[in-house]
Design goal:
The structure is a single chain. By secondary structure, the chain is of the alpha/beta class. The chain has three domains: 333 residues, Rossmann fold (3-Layer(aba) Sandwich), CATH 3.40.50; 189 residues, 3-Layer(aba) Sandwich (Rossmann fold), CATH 3.40.50.12780; 123 residues, 2-Layer Sandwich (GMP Synthetase, Chain A, domain 3), CATH 3.30.300.30. It contains 21 helices and 33 strands. The strands form nine sheets. It has a nine-stranded mixed beta sheet, sandwiched between helices. The longest helix has 17 residues. It is globular. The two termini are 34 Å apart. The mean pLDDT is 94. The protein binds adenosine-5'-triphosphate (ATP) and magnesium ion.
Length: 667
């Protein structure tokens, strides 16, 4: 089939979990996994109703799934509240007085004074209840959207759960975005309130969140109220006037005054609003790697169950775990695996403010060392950055408290996996690779840590209830080890319900490319053991000497060279060949960007994959263009390689300078 993808990866190493890990794991063998998995797909309704007994409902659901393609309803008839499922449920249990969140602020590194906050479930609950009551008093009702534009402080979790408590869907906007990006997201979902904070800290600087929020608000007609959390101690002594108690919005031709309030003026305790299982819980905009971000809608019960069940099995949480997910709450990983998943499991989540490499490249290792974190969940982009700065940084710290590692966000190249395993995991921690998307809501493909062997670079096996397949254009499954489109054949509880305000885009984007299945947009192959290997985005597939090859495999070959920190492969229109292969490479500290290095790297790819795959051009780059969530934006590199101006959305690009620098690079 002409459209299939050729896989060139030869990775064959595998890692078996230790007996010690296996013994205490929830799922202890591949057989156990298979049995549960078969149940989850043979009778999904029964499986998911069973699991749902573990969370509290105000009204029990009667039915698992109601499916009218492309619209799913899960847990019909059920009523619940996500904040109750995360907090109130622990009342009267030992978990109530256990830490829900352990947080460390950035100024610690400047003042030398530990700025650590621990919130028990009881304390977090008290804060959530008060903010929820405050939101109600400000006129925010069930169904009203609330934007949250904050840094990584415990109050961002409070804000999310307070919204959930009153049935107001939240939309968290990453705190690193500028006013324009915030404005567009508020307007797209018509948010009525905005919760922000005065400032945040990052790399020794104050991030002026309130100022940006204020600037955005002036162009957001739907917005009625801004709530400001005070992060900076000095600001606590200021009264409301310090933030200007009013802001103006232009409505039609009129200027209308709106209100600004403080989050810390608190009313009394009030009950949570039970909502329908399908009530919107949040809207979250995707990272924008492949185009304009989409407002992905998740609803309450199905999403919560996806987050709850996946956290339970994938991170295999123990009561005494200190679980550290380094994602920002502005991305789906922060939603599912800092907030809803861990809290609904009664876990302790570690959060930090600031950057992973400031003031030194060992910020994470320092945090893990001092707090004795047991689980670390991070992204390949971070791991590659750590490899680049060298092993001496983690070596300064005792990381022996870690027992499990996880990765998410991009395909992890085997070399980075091995480094993570050896240097961070001390060779003893299993690594769970987790493939999923903002749209899937929770982990969809993974290597359950005590159950199966890990293969570096492979996301692993399907999670419960998920039926991934690798298919051709007609939707026919391709042979094992052949590449194709990664699709999900069945609906699952935490799937997105629609694109906010654009159901036609939802149907077109996800349910039309291959008939009757969910299109992920990713290319993959499934190997002889059933493991899935994501080979890159379908839109980025390269045509190399007549073979269609995923970007990830070329990039992995480059990164396996000791000089290379990071690589991106793109195709460029070529008169003779149809398409030429161009690669962008960032080097490790100490390697020189010379013609000699270039020749070595080209030869290396030819050796690893085959002569036909020797790139036609190689450009050295100080950095690659990435989304704010750390993913390489190949579409921008593609335009650059072709010498055309990028017309696509660049609103989520991390650093515009990177593109300017790359324009000057030679091949
Ligand atoms: P947009 O949809 O706006 O282009 P995005 O796809 O980058 O943005 P996310 O939902 O944050 O937004 O990312 C999901 C994508 O990330 C997946 O489709 C996949 O390409 C990639 N991904 C995530 N985890 C993994 C993983 N473990 N292995 C391989 N790829 C992964
Ligand atoms: Mg996507």
């Amino acid at each position: 089939m002409a459209n299939n993808i050729t896989s060139v990866s030869k990775e064959s190493r595998r890692f078996t979990p230790s007996d010690e890990f296996r013994k205490q794991a929830r799922i202890k063998s591949r057989e156990e996994y298979e049995a549960l998995y078969q149940r989850s797909i043979n009778d999904p309704a029964a499986f998911w109703l069973d699991e749902a007994r573990e969370i509290p409902w105000s009204k029990e659901p009667k039915k698992g799934l109601d499916w009218k393609e492309p619209h799913a309803k899960w847990y019909e008839g059920g009523e619940l509240n996500a904040s109750v499922a995360c907090l109130d449920r622990w009342k009267g249990t030992p978990t109530w007085h256990k830490a829900a969140i352990v947080w460390e602020g950035e100024p610690f590194y400047q003042t030398g004074e530990p700025e650590v906050q621990t919130l028990t479930y009881a304390q977090l609950h008290a804060k959530v209840v008060k903010l929820a009551a405050k939101l109600r008093r400000l006129g925010i009702a069930q169904g009203d959207r609330v934007a949250i534009y904050m840094g990584m402080v415990p109050e961002v979790v409070v804000a999310m759960l307070a919204c959930a408590r009153i049935g107001a869907p939240h939309t968290v906007v990453f705190g690193g975005f500028a006013a324009d990006a915030l404005r567009d997201r508020i307007n797209d979902c018509g948010a009525k309130a905005l919760i922000t904070q005065d400032i945040g800290y990052r790399r020794g600087n104050e991030v002026k969140l309130f100022d940006a929020a204020h600037a955005a608000a002036a162009q957001c007609p739907s917005l009625r109220t801004i709530l400001v959390h005070t992060r900076k101690l000095e600001n606590l002594h200021l009264d409301d006037d310090a933030f200007a108690t009013k802001f103006a919005v232009t409505e039609g031709s009129q200027e209308v005054e709106r209100m600004i309030a403080r989050t810390d003026l608190v009313p009394k305790d009030e009950a949570a609003t039970p909502v329908d299982a399908e009530h919107p819980l949040f809207v979250l905009y995707t990272s924008g790697s492949t185009g304009k971000p989409k407002g992905v809608l998740h609803t309450t019960a199905g999403y919560l169950m996806g987050a709850y069940v996946s956290t339970k099995y994938v991170f295999d949480l123990r009561d005494d775990d200190l679980y550290f997910c380094t994602a920002d709450v502005g991305w789906v990983t922060g939603h599912s695996y800092i907030v809803y998943g861990p809290l609904s499991n009664g876990a302790t989540a570690l959060m930090f403010e600031g950057a992973p490499n400031w003031p030194q490249p060992d910020r994470l290792w320092d945090i893990i060392d001092r707090h004795n974190a047991t689980i670390l969940y991070t992204a390949p982009t971070a791991i590659r950055a750590f490899i680049r700065t060298g092993e001496e940084w983690p070596a300064k710290h005792d990381l022996s408290s870690l027992r499990l590692l996880g990765t998410v966000g991009e395909p992890i190249n085997p070399e980075a996996w091995l480094w993570y395993h050896r240097v961070i995991g001390g060779g003893r921690c299993p690594i769970v690779d987790t493939w999923w998307q903002t749209e899937t809501g929770s982990i969809a493909i993974t290597t359950l840590p005590g159950a199966v062997d890990a293969k570096p670079g492979s996301a692993g096996l399907p999670f419960f209830g998920i039926v991934p397949k690798v298919v051709d254009q007609e939707g026919k499954e391709v042979a094992r080890n052949a590449g194709g489109k990664l699709i999900l054949a069945n609906p699952w509880p935490s799937m997105l319900r629609t694109v906010w305000g654009d159901d036609a885009r939802y149907a077109a984007q996800y349910w039309s490319d291959v008939p009757h299945v969910y299109t992920t947009g990713d290319g993959a192959r499934q190997d002889e053991d059933g493991y899935f290997w994501v080979v890159g985005r379908i839109d980025d597939v390269l045509n190399v000497a007549g073979h269609r090859i995923g970007t990830a495999e070329i990039e992995s070959a480059l990164v396996s060279h000791p000089f290379v920190a990071e690589a991106a492969a793109v195709g460029r229109p070529d008169e003779l060949k149809g398409q030429a292969l161009v690669v962008f490479v960032t080097l490790k500290t100490g390697a020189a960007a010379t013609d000699e290095t270039r020749a070595k790297l080209l030869e290396h790819v030819a050796k690893e994959i085959g002569k036909f795959a020797r790139p036609d051009g190689l450009r050295f780059a100080a950095a690659l263009p990435k989304t704010r969530s750390g993913k390489i934006m190949r579409r921008l590199l593609k335009d650059l390689a072709a010498g055309v101006e990028s017309k696509g959305d660049t609103s989520t690009l991390e650093d515009l300078n990177v593109l300017a620098q790359l324009r000057g690079a030679e091949e």
